[in-house]
Amino acid sequence: MALLTLPLYPCSKTRSSLSPSQQATLTSKISGALAQALTLPYEKRDVRSILAFISSYTKDHAQVTLESLIWDPEHASKSSLAGMSQTEKGIHQRVLLLSEKLSAELDLQTVVDLCVVYARGHTKRVHTLLASIAMASPSFLRLLETDAIPAFTTLLGLPSQGLYGLRKIAHILCSLLKPAPAEVARPFARSRQFMLALVQAYDDGLAGLARSYGGLSAARLQAPETPLDDWERIFLESKVALVDTAHVLLRTLLGDVAAAPGSGPALAEACTPAFEVLDALVALVPSRGPTEEPIPFLNRSLIEDCQAAYDLRAVLKGATRTANDPHTQRLERALADLNTREDGPGALRLLLRSSGAMPGIDTRGAGPAKDKGKARAAATDQPDNHPALAAAVAQVLDILPEQDPAYIRYVLQHPDFPYRGDAERLIGALLEGTAPVV
Description:
Elements: H1 12-16, H2 20-39, H3 47-71, H4 73-76, H5 86-101, H6 108-118, H7 123-136, H8 138-156, H9 162-177, H10 182-189, H11 192-212, H12 230-259, H13 265-283, H14 302-310, H15 312-319, H16 326-337, H17 348-352, H18 387-399, H19 405-413, H20 423-432
Helix pairs in contact: 2-5, 3-6, 3-9, 6-9, 7-8, 8-10, 8-11, 9-12, 10-12, 11-12, 11-13, 12-13, 12-14, 12-15, 13-16, 15-16, 18-19, 18-20
């Protein structure tokens, strides 16, 4: 029997040149081929051609996603499935399923593109995918250190890319690192050069780019009802993405400290990179004159906005409770000295009037509360009044509209089934035919 071979996925420009009937025929053929590929054993697939298909599909969709950040913010704020036909939604899901099956063989660029395309709507699955790649392919972690981190470090400090380029880089980093397990985030977090580049892009890079557009002043915040200019929106969204990225990396460093033994070389090994990076970031906080008002997400440093949004001082205290290191108290004092009192959303109030709060930062400019997820446990009590369950049901039906809404709701909330509100997991089970029969 001949091996199943897949062609490259046609790019957006090619697909848009086809007539509606040609597009329908093309997507139907692709969907059928992917469905067949998922059912075949490994030895009956032409793995090289399938990997090339996955790479071409994710590259095309990642480019569309990144361009929409600049030119189509309404589309960028919606699910990646918005505007797709049912067949295209099926293709989208099957590409992710195939990627999961072939995770150990994906190249670095494809993994990054996969994160851009799928991280927002499939965070848990992307986390699991990255963890399996890191475990199965040690070369992937080496490539992060030798290729990805130096490249991102350079791009963060490249003035020629302008505001649009920095917005895209911030989104790529956030998409890769926010769902990443610690073993994937750790090389970024321990790279002092990368962390400094991240801070400088936030503190100096974005400030300089804002000045080139005429600047964003404190007075502008007094008129939030005035529609945002495109550059203002892109500027603020870039800040949110960089703060979320920094938080993930700092949390990874401090998590290593918390997990280390209470004394000895292992503790020193965990503490040293964490304190070196934190020392360097705190040292970059600028001094201000008595009349200069620090405004969240406008003119404060990355570490200040990160401290206000995610309370790094509390994280540091928890991580270093057993670490008898001379740096600890000094870092705690430095974080305590940061001017991060509860000032509300600051410049983010402008975003709240336009496209809404960005993922990861709520309307006060603070990160998600630790107990927000607890509400999901009550899904079986008042399903009709539970927005998380309703959203999960809607997510499943958006991809698989032929399913019975009552069945989807029942399976998602019933304690005998493993889904517990996890729409992504149920979608995967329905596509693979392993969902429960009730």
